[in-house]
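Dear colleague,

Following up on yesterday's call, I've attached the two folding results inline so they're easy to grep. Please treat them as preliminary; we haven't cross-checked anything against experimental data yet. The first protein's sequence and structure tokens come first.
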Amino acid sequence: MKPFAILVLPLGLALAATAFAAGESVEIAPLPEGSVSAEQGLDHWSRIYDVTSSPRCSNCHVGADNLPMWSGPSYGKTRPHGMNINAGESRIGAETILCSTCHIGSNGSKEHGAPGVNADWQLAPVEAAWFGKSSVEVCNQLRDPARNGGRSFVEIAEHLNHDVILHWAWNPGKGREPAPYSLQEHVNDILAWGAAGMPCEND
């Protein structure tokens, strides 16, 4: 599976699709560029960062050490994934043990059982590493085509809509806190931030 699949869409096109894991219908309805002020855009960014920095997202957005993390209130202290797991340069564990060995097609019923989703479980590409990074760092990273898979803000929203593994963040299984807000609200925040020109606090 390629780490980035780019879908080019006209800015004004509104699409709807099913968020399979979250069980909600997600609408991609871009706003006209410039229709959201920079100040409002920063408010939307703040909410986006609430999601990207949450354990459900950041734990797999790690660097070149290829170590997924365990963090968040339900895990106690922040630490690397147990059992000496290393996803390797493949980011799917091909060099040692595949992530899919334990991360199967659905969440288990046991507290903190291995999360599952009907997609290939893997770490985000190393270019998208943001575990432990500040809001300003992640903001500049997410709007940088060299580090976001060459995506526009509309394509970032589409990526969230179509990549089923990302939907798991809002349906993470027993004993885990879901990502804040909802998938639709997160998509809406990305589209509003984009319409504002993707502002960051260091602009």
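Below is the second protein, in the same order (sequence, then structure):
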Amino acid sequence: MKQITSGLIICCIICCSNVFAQELYIVSNAAANISKGRLEVRNIAKSYDGMSAFHYDFQVNYGILGNLTLYNHVTYTTNSDYQFLGNYDFDARYRFLDIDKPNYHWRFAYQGGATIPVNPKSITDQVEYELHPGHTISFYDFGGDITVPSIDFHTTDNYTIHNSIIATNLIKKFAITGEMGYNVNIAGNDFKFGNYYQWNLSLGLLLLPDEYKSYNDVNLNIYSESKAYYFEKNKFLGDEIGNSGGFRLDTYLGIQAIFFSSLMTELSYMIPVHSNEFVETQVEKRSGSLVLSLRYLFFL
């Protein structure tokens, strides 16, 4: 009986790898969930200023039910002379609709949560803020205006409420996912970052294996993930800051290897495609960014 049960578990893992591997996007969400009772531990490193510095995102995620997953992560950096523990993010993803056919399915999910400041940095009428090493932005009586959106700050005093709808379509070895969300910022003090819309369009393709033969088969996937934002204007004491807000579009090209259906190594490169944001000169010269990720799924 134990041998039969073990065999069924292994077959289930292989089938899940075959069906869902190309939906495990690197920087965006799919309308899929972590299996019930599995714990994912992940660390992501993202480069800044031409790889002169890195910020990290440490995650602990858990599958409560087959269609409900909890996501927890906190930003941090260990760069010398600039170390911090940043915002804590909590999200829950609920898959509310499945449409299944042979070698084909649709998944629909809602994801919601919040960003909570851990080490809040208040923005008042005078501030010099080091966004990341070598990138200092200064403001005085908002003469230059705070033009940078909240997603570029990791230690603000603003809270953010997340809301998004996700749809994923899998056709054999190809997956396409769209996500649309609206995020609400809540001011901790006098300064409020503008609320913002977010759209993601992600494509995933399973390259290897051609056919699954055993649990030890390595998955190799490639991804294109585009992320678009529209930022509403920031506010100070209830008044809009004129030179703020705008549109941004970035595309990430990545590759992912999955070992034993548990260990994932990932590499992606962010290409700034377009921006009409009101930005400071230094921010306007956004360079490409390298994303490295390592995650492991445990059975509990």
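For the second protein, one point worth flagging: The chain is about 10% helix and 60% strand.

Best wishes,
A.L.
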